[in-house]
């Protein structure tokens, strides 16, 4: 589709970006996605809204529903997102919560498909914290036939409910879900190796303890050598160079992290078009 045709998809549609947490990729990709589709976007910072503090979440949802066609929200607590969706009369998109990061995972699988030419049968290894990104990747991998392995320290595993659901999806798609504490086991023969920061926003007080806990989970050249020779390295960014990943891996020939970041724009356009056109 040409750019001019794309701008006709969502003319006069308005989207609110309601953020409790700052972001580079999420904000820029959604703002540009709305513009590319011919709509109008407004960014609402934590200071402007004070979601749940200055004004109840339910009231914010109802007010914004009077103004916009869609709310894209990036929040600390998933419960806030659920409450927004319960009280809004327009669609609410999860742009990140402490439970999931679905738009990131969609961009990730798009990138894998571009680089590997397929999704079914691809082996994706995730090393690090069993966080929101890992949770979304596990579920989406199971749905799409991607073999998913995750290595986390004890106490930082994915929750059992997520693993059970991912394995149910995997059973139907013909893939498998591996859970281990051994990074080498997870990465062995992987097509793609993925990591994320050990300390997410809001966990800053835990940073020193987390560095000690996760130090053997760093993705470096030695660990990457256990994967396939044409392995692709992924990271959702921002990265802490020298912590969860070494600079030579992040900037090396196997790294596709910036293609991955670029695909956030294309996925946001697809998500917005799918949701808003379906509401016509």
TL;DR?
This protein has 280 residues and is of the alpha/beta class.
How does this structure look, described?
The chain has 280 residues and is α/β, with parallel strands linked by helices. The protein folds into two domains: 3-99, Aspartate/ornithine carbamoyltransferase (Rossmann fold); 103-260, Rossmann fold (3-Layer(aba) Sandwich), CATH 3.40.50.1370. Helices cover 45% and strands 16% of the residues. It is built from 13 helices and nine strands. The strands form two sheets. A five-stranded parallel sheet has the order 7-6-5-8-9.
What structural keywords apply?
280 residues; alpha/beta; Rossmann fold; 2 domains; five-stranded parallel beta sheet; four-stranded parallel beta sheet; 16% strand
Blueprint of the fold:
Elements lengths: L2 H4 L7 E6 L5 H12 L3 E5 L1 H4 L7 H11 L2 E5 L3 H10 L3 E6 L5 H15 L6 E5 L4 H13 L2 E5 L8 H14 L3 E4 L2 H5 L4 E4 L11 H8 L6 H4 L7 E4 L11 H4 L6 H22 L2
Parallel strand pairs: 1-2, 1-3, 3-4, 5-6, 5-8, 6-7, 8-9
Helix pairs in contact: 2-13, 4-5, 6-7, 6-13, 7-8
Molecular shape: globular
Q: Compute the gyration radius: what is it?
A: 19 Å
Number of domains: 2
Overall mean confidence score, pLDDT: 95
Strand content: 15-25%
User: Could you please say which CATH topology of the largest domain applies here?
Assistant: Rossmann fold
Kindly state the percentage of residues in helix: 40-55%
N/C terminus separation: 21 Å
Just name the CATH architecture of the largest domain: 3-Layer(aba) Sandwich
Helices, by number, come to 13
The top level CATH class name of the largest domain: Alpha Beta
CATH superfamily name of the largest domain?
A: Aspartate/ornithine carbamoyltransferase
Q: Provide the succession of SSEs.
A: HEHEHHEHEHEHEHEHEHHEHH
> What structural category do the secondary elements indicate?
alpha/beta
Task: Enumerate the strands of the largest sheet in spatial order, edge to edge or round the barrel.
Answer: 7-6-5-8-9
Let me know the largest β-sheet.
5 strands, parallel
What's the count of strands?
9
